[in-house]
Amino acid sequence: MRPHVLALIGxxxxxxxxxxxxxxxxxxxxxxxxxPTGAIGERCRKIxxxxxxVPVSLHRTFHDDFDVHPLVEARxxxxxxxGAAWPQSRYWGGEGSDFKRKTSYNGEQQIYVDSVYAGRAxxxxxxxxxxxxxxxxxxxxxxxxxxxxxxxxxxxxxxxILTTQSKFTQKYGYFEMRSKIPAGVGVWxxxxxxxxxxxxxxxxxxxxxxxxxxxxIVMTTHWRxxxxxxxxxxxxxxxxxxxRNEFHNYGVLWLRDRIIYFIDRRxxxxxxxxxxxxxxxxxIVNLAMGSKxxxxxxxxxxxxxxVVEFEIDRISxxxxxxx
Length: 323
Prior knowledge:
Layout: H1 3-15, E1 30-36, E2 45-46, E3 53-64, E4 110-112, E5 130-133, E6 136-143, E7 157-159, E8 161-163, E9 173-179, E10 187-195, E11 203-209, E12 216-224, E13 231-239, E14 248-254, E15 258-263, E16 266-272, E17 281-289, E18 307-320
Parallel strand pairs: 4-7
Antiparallel strand pairs: 1-3, 2-16, 3-18, 5-6, 6-7, 6-18, 8-17, 9-14, 9-18, 10-11, 10-17, 11-12, 12-13, 14-15, 15-16
């Protein structure tokens, strides 16, 4: 974003009055959000009633309302992307191909599949975790069929991930998902963002569900301290009514000076932009099963649901308007 544009936005924050938010049920081509204007410290904070808010005007740059299968129009890829040295064929099967289809560090117990993924087999297994029905995408996690378990690296579940890496990235702006949030032992749905340059962190977790804590979501920012290499994070849990049965919007507004988290287009927390948030970021939505790092998720067991559906109405991105 050009410096003079950012300066104008800053002056707008100082002078403009607040006004009503746009309808959170709609993904409008033009969108106005309310953002806080006060000084921010080094740590994240919850936005309180009575905080001064001003309007930020945005225009839509990415939108998928899932009227068709998410892989049909080439907006998404069903795995983590690799570097230039990663052979393209390894995305689709062979020993080691699970590396781009789960995050072992987290202790995850699923593998992300799609209809052309072969696992250890020599031909695609035809497993599709994505279903579109009446404009709603479901990412479906289910227990791995016993006869396929060895071919799928002995993971307990098959599930799905969608990422826009190499398809859509953006620096600054607003990123939003409208969805229901599934729950259960070991259930870990998420909508999040990573830097397009492949580094980690930075990471923005727009929404993560803690499967064993119903109607609870967490929004978190991760960054690294250059001098020490230490990874820091700061975020908050929020109670949201009936997340399993009702659609809600979960979003993040990334400005030059601050990152603001939103639930149903109302700002709920913010943090000063940490060091390292320099590259455009891409979006990820996934349904993991099992975690040793995410409190309130736990490992899958006999009480975990055999089938889990993560229902998503739409995912959109907006860029800040220039004036």
